[in-house]
Each structure stands twice: as C-alpha cells, then as structure tokens.
Request: fold
Amino acid sequence: MADQTHIEWCDSTFNPWIGCTKVSPACDHCYAAVSTPARTCNIAWGAGQPRRRTSPANWKLPLRWNARPFLECPACHWRGEAKGAHWGGTGCPRCSGQPQPARRRVFCASLADVFDNEVDPQWRAALFALIQATPNLDWLLLTKRIGNAHQMIGESLIRIAGGTDLLPSWPWPNVWLGATIATQAEADRDIPKLLAVPAAVRFLSMEPLLGSVDMSGALLEAVPRSEWIGDPPATLQRREAPGTPLRRRLPGIDWVIVGGESGPNARPMHPDWARSLRDQCAAARVPFLFKQWGEWAPFERPRGFDWKHPGGDFATWDGEKFRPFYPNLHELVSMRRIGKKAAGRMLDGQEHSEFPA
Reply:
C-alpha cells in the first residue's frame, strides 16, 4: 500500500486485503495485527474473523507502477521511479552514477497472507489477474502457509480462465514465491513444500529467526564427476580435493533473507544463528540478505564494565535459551536491547544485501 517502503528487500508493498490468523511461533508478536491500518479499520486477527478487502483505488496502484519506468544506480544501489532528470538525464540523485532500467519489487501482502484459508477465492483470483496484468513488476509472495500455495494457485488460474480450457501457463516470470521459516521444525516441514511449487524464484524469509537452522540439505547436493554432461557450469567448478564429489545448488532455493525480531516484545537472535545461515548460503552460492538485528544487538563488553549494575536490558545465552542478564554468565554471549535503528544490519562488520540475479 506504499510506493516506497523501508523494508530492505523490496521497493513497494501492496495489500489486496488485511487480516490473518497466527499460525507460527514467528507470529507471536505480529506487527500487522497491531498496525495502523488494522486498528483504524477495526480488523481482528484469528480464524473465523472477516478479512477486509482494500479499496479499488489501492488496487489500481500496481497498474500505475507497472506503467512507470523504474531505475537502479549500479554505483550506490539507489532504486526509484524514473522522474525528471533521472530518466536518461543528469544521473543518480544520490551519487554521480548513471541509473539503469530495473524492475520494481512488490511485497504482497505485508498485512495478510495470499494463501490464507479464510480469504474469498474470488479475491485471490482477482489478485493473480492483477499480477498477470503487471508484467513489469516482480511480485514477492511471502507466505506462512506454503502448503496451500500449489492448490490455490491452480484454483486461481482456473478462475482467471473463466471455465475455458485456455489456462494461463505457470510459473510466471514475475512471481517470486517465498516461505517464512523461523525454526528448524519449520524448515524441515516447509522447505520441501516450497520446492514442490513451480516458481521463477523461490526464497526463504527467516525473520524473526528464533533458533539455529541447518538447511544445507536443501541447498547442496553431491554431484559425482561421472554425472557431468559436457563442461561443468560455473556452480560446479570448485573442488575441495581430488576425488571429492562436487557440491552445487539444488534447483529451487534462489535467495535467503535473515533477520531478528523488532517491536516491544522482541526476542533476541543469537549471532551464531545468523552466521551459520550466511555461511551455508556462501557454500551453496545462494544470495544472502541480512535484513536487521532487530531490537537486540550483540553486546561487546567495554573494559571496566560493571557486571553487578549493568543498566539497560540485557539477555544472556545459557546454552539452551536466552535468559535475563546474570553476572555469573558474563563469559557467554550476551545481547543488549538498543532498538532496531541503533542495532542496524551489519553482520560481523559487513552489510549483506544480495539479490537473485
């Protein structure tokens, strides 16, 4: 519902409707349920609660976006609409670079779930008709109900066809399909479901990350040299040692987003959880985007720090969970609540902002 957004991995947000039901530990402190639109429209979250379709004017926004040229600066990575001098003119509004044509990334739906069982199937079909009518936009469909996606996409295509045999072909090149993964249990359950749905781009949003997740089995597979046909592609050219099977990306996982939780009740994210996913993606050559630490950031203890009277909000990892700060655990990893803006998005001193090619 916004031409611009502060979400680091998209350019705009569009909500065809508002409302949802909490179905995951990641939903415990849902920002959408207490958002201004939800409160203004008196929309209640939960099973059996009506979803509110947004206005016809809001549904026209993607059509306008689709008709407007969009740019990205290769020097500073500024992204925005081509307005005035920026379009083939004086250059980037932030630096001396020359912006190039790009595709607007639209996150749908930030205040709902496209594959929510409570949504009228006609609304979903109307959304897919809108996506079909806006081929210049990349639609990022992120869901906590990836198990519904295959069937509901098919039903929507049938409704678009209007009962004829001329079903739209699938997958569409402008649809990126993503699943929210917060824990190992969700990864084991939902990544295979995501891989089973045809999509031009498949991605994982691991925010809020609530535990350590090993997804190397979904990212890598061994490929013996005897199975190569012709010259190996670029992803197969690295060998650890003679005779070692090569590792390559599995077709399907094209992008991983990782982030900690924000908001008043945010839970800390252990730095090693994020580091592990960064390293797994690097090994599999999968683009990795570290979105944020959230409310809590790793605490680097200054010399002379008073462990008896630390002040502020701290949490310490005791090996199994985060607990309120306790002086005798000062040798373990501690996190400090400093707010989302102050915590930033640097992981080990580096910003990770990779996107699928």
